[in-house]
Amino acid sequence: QKEVEQDPGPLSVPEGAIVSLNCTYSNSAFQYFMWYRQYSRKGPELLMYTYSSGNKEDGRFTAQVDKSSKYISLFIRDSQPSDSATYLCAMKGGSEKLVFGKGTKLTVNP
Amino acid sequence: GAVVSQHPSWVICKSGTSVKIECRSLDFQATTMFWYRQFPKQSLMLMATSNEGSKATYEQGVEKDKFLINHASLTLSTLTVTSAHPEDSSFYICSAPPPLAGGNEQYFGPGTRLTVT
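The joint structure predicted for all components is written out below.
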């Protein structure tokens, strides 16, 4: 079993839809959870950062962490065509090493 | 916010030659930088951790004699791909944790696309 599992998609939604992106993980030592957005041929851009369990909201984005289920989610409300990108979950424990999911490719259609 | 740059953004080289990629932290000092490799439709795979003033730490399966890392200053780390082969063609990305993030966040460079012919 991989440390981090993420459905690569692709996921295609109409503009204005609510998008749900998810990752599961197996390492209970992970405590820091991030979501990155990566446009084609660009470096990842940090979107959301969450410590331990709970929710965090930033504009149209909401990150949720459920450590008991080892499951994290990113919700995008009122999705826009500019949200079309690959979304990578990443997590880490006590060391500085980030472990990434494969990424989910999202397309928001106008 | 913290900015990390990479140079070049795109390079083509012939098989057997060496290529150097630079990673710079533009507005903060980074004692640690990370080098990742990303193949098409794959996730980022950590290659090595670059430590200023000391040897890099390589992940299992990464040849340290092939991927030479030098972290000579607090704002610059370089990755040299020696004797490059077509299978080394990939997207190479560096990252650095900004100083006040406690090591729990990383900012990524824009990546360098290497094509070996």
